[in-house]
Write the C-alpha cells for this entry.
Amino acid sequence: QVQLVESGGGLVQAGGSLRLSCAASGSIFSSHVMGWYRQSPGNQRELVAAITSGGITNYVDSVKGRFTISRDNTKNTLYLQMNSLKPEDTAVYYCRGRSIVSDYWGQGTQVTVSS
C-alpha cells in the first residue's frame, strides 16, 4: 500500500505563490498517472493538473499559465507550483496516484488565498 502525504499549503495573499509537495512512500511515478485535485466547500472535487508516466501534463483551464505540475523521480515527490494565486483557488488540495489496478489519495492540504 502506497501512502501519499501532501505539504506546503497555507495562507497567502492574492497574487502570491505556494508550492505544494506530495511525497509517495513508494516508486509509483513510472506506473501511475499523478494528479493534483482540489475541493472547496459546496463544490465537487476537480482535477487541477496531471502528469503521466511519460511526462505529459494537462491543466484545467482556470490554472493554465499560473500552475505547474512536476515531479522528482529520485525523491518520489510530486509538486505543484502555484503562482498568481487568486481567492477562487482557495480549496483543499489533494494528491492522487492512479493506475489500472490502484488508486491512491493523500489526506489533503489547505490553501487559502486572501483578497
